[in-house]
Every structure is written in C-alpha cells, then in structure tokens.
Design brief:
Oligomer: single chain
Helix content: 25-40%
Number of strands: 28
Shape: globular
Strand content: 15-25%
Number of helices: 21
C-alpha cells in the first residue's frame, strides 16, 4: 500500500482523543517509582563535590555500621568484579583516518572524579532515609585539581587534562564537504557574511526524573530492570554485551509509563548498571529515584557549541558556499550517542532548505569537567538550524533584502535534491510553507504593528526561521559505515485474536507522544476496526521481539512502517483464509473496510470471521496454511525523512528593562501524512515552548574557575511558563514522504528546532535601530539591557 492510498483510509487524519490519557488523568499510570518489589532496598549515590580531583581514599566504615545499610560499593568493587565502563554507541573517525579517543567511563569513579556529580559510591539500605543518612557518613579524601568547563579553555595549551587517553582534551577533529571548492567559491564572492555564536548548554528536565529498580532471580539466574528509559532493548544490549558481560536473554528491561524523555532517557547511565550488578551481589531488589537537584548534576545535558561561520553570496543574494567551524563540548565522558550529535546529526543538516552549491564543516570535540553532553530534543538539528538561520537573516540585513526574500531566492524547488553534505531530500515544498506562514502571521500589516509599538515606547521585531531536519536515522548499513554501533531498524508484531481484536507489540516507546492512540489508528484503518479494538504494547524486552526505541522523531515513520509491513503479511494470509471460505483464489479477493470480497460477485466475509477461522480451523486449508493470525516484521528505512517548515516570531521589547515579550508566533510545518492532527498539534506546542525556553530563558552554567554548576535548581535555571508564550498560529503543508508506506515524516522535534533562531532573529530585528547586531541565547532581560547599553556607548 502506498502513502497516497494510506492517507485516504478511515481514522487517518482524525483527531481522536488519546486512549492513554484516561489512566494518566485518573492517577492509574504506573511509573518506575510507583513499583514496589518484595525485599526492595534503596540506593543513594555519593557524588563528587569537586569538578576535578584525585580520590586518595574512601572510608566506608562508619557508613557500613549505620542503621539499615546492607552494602556500599565503590570503584574498587567495580574493578574487583571486572565490570567494564559505559560504551559510546557511535565511533567517529577523524580527518586523519584515526578513531576518536575513547577514554574509560567507569560506572563508579576509580582513582579520579571528573565533574561535579560524578559517581563515587553507591549506598544500599532498607529505607531511602537510612540510605541518605549513611551516604553522609561515607568519607572521601579528595585531592582537588584544576578544572576546565568551557571548550574555549579546554583547547588551550596547558589546560587541565581530564584523561590520560586524551591529554590535550581533544576527542576528534571531523569534517564533511569539499574544502577546496568552498574556498574557491569564497574567492569569487561578491559578499561574505560572518557570524560567531554560542549554542547554550541546556538541562533536559523531563517531568519525571530518572528512576530504576533492579532485581535478581536466583532460581533462573536472571535479572529484571525497571527503568525510565526511551529504548529498553538498546539499554539491555549495551549493558549486557559491553558492560556486565551477561547473556542478553537473562536480562529483562521494562520501561513502564515514562514521564517525558526529550533524549535524556535514551542513554545507558551508570546508575542502571550499578543497580543491576548490585541486585545479585547484595541479593535484593534495589530502587533508585533521582531527585531534581541530582538530575541537574547527573543527567546528560544538551547543545553547548561554539561556532564561527561564513556565507559567500553573489551580487544578487544567492548563496555560493557555506564554511563552518564548530567546537563541541562533550563533557567529562562520552555518553551513548554524544559523538554523533555534533557530526552526523549536525553537519549534514547545514545545507538547510537552500541550494547552496558547496558546504564545508569542520568540528572539533573536547572533553571538559562537566556533565556528559548528548542528544536533547532535536539532537544536532537545532544546533544546525540555529546557526544557519541566524546567518541567513544576517545575510539579508547586510545585503538589504528582507528575511523572507533572501530565503525564497535560495530555496530548493526541485526534488529529489542531493545536498553537498551527504543527504538527499526526497520531497518538500519550502516556498509553500513560507507563503502560508507569511499569511498566518499577517506580515502585510507588520509595519502598522511596529509603529503602534513605537508609539508606546517599545521596540518590535520579526524573525524568520526556515528549518529542515532529518528523522528516522537510516538506513542501518549507511549509519554503520558512519560509525553507528547498532542497527537502526524497527520491529512490529501484530497479533490478531480469535475475536478479531488486535494487540500490537512495537519496539518504539511512548513517553508522552501518544503512540497507543496513533498506532491504534494505523492498525484500525488497515483492518477495518475501531481503534478501541487495538491495544499497543511497548517498553518490555520480555514481550516485544526487539526494537530500537524512540528518538529522532522516528516512531511513526520507522516503527509505524514496521507495523505496516506486519499488516501486509496479516492481510496476505487473511486473504488466503477468506478465499478458502468463499471457494475462490486469493488473487480474486479484495479487502477494504474490514470485509473480504470476491471481485465481480456479492460474496463477502468479515475480518472477524477470518480471525475466528484462523484459530478454530475446522473449515481451513491446513495443508497449505498454519493456523493462527500473528505476524512480525522488521523495517529498515532506505533514507531519512525530512520534516521542514517556516517559523515566524514577532516580539516586543521594552528598551528600559530589556524584557522581551513574544507577541505572536507562527509555525507552518510539512510533516507529510498526519495520522492524528490533535496529537501533532500538541507535539508542536511542546517543541515550540522548549525552543522558546532555550532562546529566552534556559542556560546551564558552570563556574569557569571552580567547575561548580551554578544553575543547579529551578531557582537558578529558568524554565518557560504559560505566560512566557503566546497562542500559537499553526499551519501545515503536506508533501508525503516517498520512502515509507505511510508518507509520514515525524513531528516531535520540529518545534524545538525551528523556534530558537526565529526568536533571536526577531530580537535582533527589534534592536537593530539601536545598533545591536549580535546577541547569544538566552535573550534574558539582563542580556538584552546590557546589549542596548553597550550599543549606546
């Protein structure tokens, strides 16, 4: 079935209410911390108060005598049991053809700590209170060392070295594009625009902090790990094959209801491994739930790039070449996908929506005494879009063109389109997104609104951002050639029950996206059922055959496509059963709206009849078909999907206080086929708020001298609230994806990708009359006010 046929099926494009919301709204959800196991104890981690220090000695004697304590484990125990370090899931090869530097990442620090919050010891006790009290009694003798937290300091000669394996703090130098062709284009350019910017570090802050419960069963010599995680099969694979050396089938990983992830729950964390290892060692189930302060210290952070870029243009404002150098902060250790974010997921998107003939990108990645940096909603795509859309708007201002006109002049209009940075876009309509965004944003009357703001003593500006992202992360063989250490396919199993109802087992994972509704719509549309007859099972390696989880807006385009392939098999077998019942050949059987019919006749049987026959095979071709109706399929995409769109932000600024107010925000997106418009709208709203949060409020700051995290709570780290954002104006252009059977492209990250540059471009447009030409995120009142005063001076 092709995408055009799929989009016309019942339930596709319907805003059905989310099936899962009933249990969430009535308190019937089950998150990891809700689970209580027999003989369950509690873990508390002793964490480093220093950004960089040698560990001289750990004295556990007093803590071991504390009430309720059954064990305290540290780096010596890890070494004694020969537990390996946490692996990095993506190998980057540098420009010299050498593999990246990959220092050990111990689950408990051994000899040295490398960031504030690094794991030093794990205390296990009968109650959480006793574990906390005992952790206070663990005495650690540290030898503090000089720390480095900023990449601009980490690269300096003589900077404090974190790892022996990377004495200069340098992990890799990576590049893509033709440098010679780019340099030649710059030599012949009529105009060159330059920009220097910082993409600020963010803390992910999902609503539910991380949590895990591990138990060991001596009878079967097997383990169960409940964990707030986005991809339980990957968690199990990495932990068993690379760290604990356990047979994979002896570990069951269950990710129950998960309260948000945003990428931060993709990774294999030290706590998950420690609990699993200790559950056998201490012969009890062990629970750990992260508190919010601990999360600020220990969750993988996002972004943190320092970049210089240059765009070459001809005399008519057409882009000739784009040249970029980025220094990326990896933190103290390599996290699961950290190395792919500033390379494969970033540089390959720097062509954007534009037909720039040549692009060259060079990335240097550095270790610092900070929490590891990895994927955060968008993962490389927001960093690419922010850079590109900031410099495109600057090109417009320097050449006297409007922000929309310079984009229109450079838009790609013919597809498929091969970019100079590896990707090939299959389809899109960028001018249509721009046109609809301009209309929804009422740009024709912008000057009147600007004049009205001026009359009130306020500054008004508008900012554009035309983004594109690559979703689905595929195909596996290409990703493997680029360094991926795992496959990037997805699995779907469709189990039809004798009564005609269906259970679907998917390797994707839902942690707020509404998969239990959207996937049910897909299955119901194909089989002629009501979505209430379809249940979705996910997040359990003991029930789902396999899967790669949810990240990169891949669930519907990859996970949904796997389910579609399984449905193809279901339909093919069901047609054979129906043909037998109607005494015809299966080639003469059509299936639509839940009924099998014989072409040219009035013969028909329902899907329910066929399902019952499959399990009660009294009148059944047993010589040709097995009983039952249960099929599994794996799907490995042939290409990425490419959601795209244009966002327009309009702000008012009080020059006396520096306060920025977003007056209106318009987002027009092309997500291909939309299954459930209401769920898509919710995903876009959430992404926009996170992007606006980065642009105006959020900033994860370490003290440059001591390495202490100074934004370690919501008192210091500003999160967006309802009154920080306006009502959003949303629109859609639909060009179905040509490389998957649903025509879908993904929507989960788009809002966070397109919005930050739109906001900052609007702020700079408003401040331009005062002479302000540059401003890094977040555009807080103090930063805006300081920029205004500096311009006046």
């Amino acid at each position: 079935m092709g995408a055009s046929d799929f989009s016309k099926l019942p339930h596709i494009g319907e805003s059905l209410k989310r099936k899962e919301d009933y249990r969430f709204l009535t308190g019937a959800g089950q998150y990891t911390d809700d689970i209580v196991l027999p003989n369950m104890h509690h873990a508390v981690f002793v964490r480093s108060p220093h950004a960089h220090a040698n560990i001289r000695k750990i004295d556990k004697s007093a803590a071991l005598k504390a009430p309720g304590v059954i064990g305290i484990l540290d780096g010596d125990d890890v070494a004694g049991d020969k537990i390996a370090g946490l692996p990095c899931g993506w190998l980057i090869t540098d420009t010299a053809g050498q593999p990246m530097k990959e220092p050990p990442h111990p689950i408990l620090a051994f000899g040295k700590v490398r960031y504030v919050g690094d794991h030093v010891a794990m205390v296990v006790a009968d109650t959480l209170e006793n574990a906390k009290n005992a952790a206070e009694l663990v005495e650690v003798d540290y030898e503090p060392l000089a720390a480095v937290v900023d990449v601009r300091d980490a690269m300096k000669s003589g900077a404090p070295a974190l790892h022996e394996a990377a004495a200069d703090n340098h992990c890799y130098k990576w590049a893509i594009g033709d440098k010679g062709q780019v340099d030649a284009a710059f030599n012949g350019a009529a105009h060159v625009t330059q920009i220097d910017l910082v993409n600020n570090r963010l803390a992910p802050n999902p609503m539910e902090p991380r949590a895990a419960i591990a138990s060991y069963n001596r009878a079967g010599d097997d383990y169960t790990l409940y964990v707030a995680n986005q991809n339980p099969h990957v968690e199990r694979l990495l932990m068993t094959a690379f760290v604990l050396g356990l047979p994979e089938h002896k570990v069951r990983v269950i990710a129950p209801d998960v309260g948000g992830g945003f990428g931060a729950k993709i990774f294999l964390y030290a706590e998950d491994v420690c609990l699993t290892w200790a559950s056998k060692k201490l012969n009890c189930a062990i629970k750990w739930t992260c508190d919010r302060s601990e999360a600020f210290l220990s969750d993988a952070h996002g972004r943190d790039h320092v970049t210089h870029a240059e765009m070459a243009l001809d005399k008519d404002g057409h882009f000739l070449a784009f040249r970029v150098h980025t220094d990326a902060n990896l933190g103290a250790y390599l996290s699961t996908f950290s190395t792919a974010v500033p390379t494969i997921l970033y540089a390959t998107l720097l062509a954007g929506q534009y037909k720039t003939p040549q692009v060259y990108v060079e990335v240097d990645a550095w270790f610092t005494n900070t929490s590891p940096v990895d994927a955060y909603r968008g993962a490389g795509r927001p960093e690419a879009t922010y850079l590109l859309e900031r410099i495109v708007s600057r090109c417009a201002w320097e050449t006297g063109l409007s922000q929309d006109e310079i984009r229109r002049r450079n838009f790609i209009t013919e597809f498929p389109y091969q970019t100079p940075v590896a990707l090939q876009y299959d389809t899109g309509d960028f001018p249509a997104c721009m046109a609809q965004a301009n209309e929804l944003a009422e740009m024709a009357s912008f000057e009147q609104r600007k004049a009205a703001s001026k009359a009130k003593g306020l500054l008004r500006g508008v900012g554009y951002s035309s983004y594109i992202e690559a979703c689905g992360l595929a195909p596996s063989n290409v990703a493997g050639a680029l360094g991926a250490r795992a496959g990037l396919f997805e699995c779907g199993e469709v189990r039809v029950h004798p009564t005609g109802s269906v259970t679907v087992f998917t390797g994707s994972h839902s942690h707020g996206q509404g998969h239990e509704t959207t996937f049910a719509q897909v299955v119901a549309s194909r089989l002629g059922l009501d979505p209430s007859q379809v249940d979705i099972v996910h997040g359990d390696t003991g029930r789902v055959p396999f899967g790669m989880g949810t990240y990169g807006s891949r669930s519907i385009s990859v996970g949904g496509a796997a389910i579609m392939r399984a449905l193809d098999k279901i339909e093919a077998k069901a047609k054979k059963i129906a043909a037998h019942l109607m005494e015809t050949g299966d080639a003469d059987v059509d299936f639509a709206n839940g009924e099998f019919t014989v072409k040219g006749t009035d013969k028909k049987v329902t899907f329910g009849q066929v399902a019952l026959t499959a399990y009660v095979p009294h009148n059944y071709p047993l010589d040709k078909l097995e009983p039952g109706l249960n099929e599994t399929a794996f799907y490995d995409p042939t290409n990425f999907t490419f959601p795209a769109g244009t966002h327009i932000c309009e702000v008012e600024i009080d020059p006396n206080t520096g306060v920025v107010r977003i007056d209106r925000f318009t987002a027009v997106d092309d997500f291909g086929t939309i299954i459930n418009p209401m769920i898509v709208e919710g995903q876009v709203h959430g992404g926009l708020v996170q992007g606006i949060g980065q642009a105006l409020l959020e900033h994860c700051v370490y003290d440059r001298e001591t390495g202490q995290l100074v934004t370690g709570s919501f008192m210091d780290y500003a999160m967006p609230r309802a009154d920080d954002v306006p009502d959003f104006r949303l629109g859609h252009v639909t060009t179905p994806c040509t490389t998957n059977p649903l025509g879908t492209k993904g929507c989960g990250e788009a809002g966070a990708i397109g919005s930050p540059p739109a906001v900052i471009n609007a702020v700079l447009d408003a401040l331009a009359p005062l002479g302000v030409k540059d401003l890094d995120m977040p555009a807080s009142p103090s930063r805006v006010w300081t920029a205004i005063q500096s311009a006046k001076a």
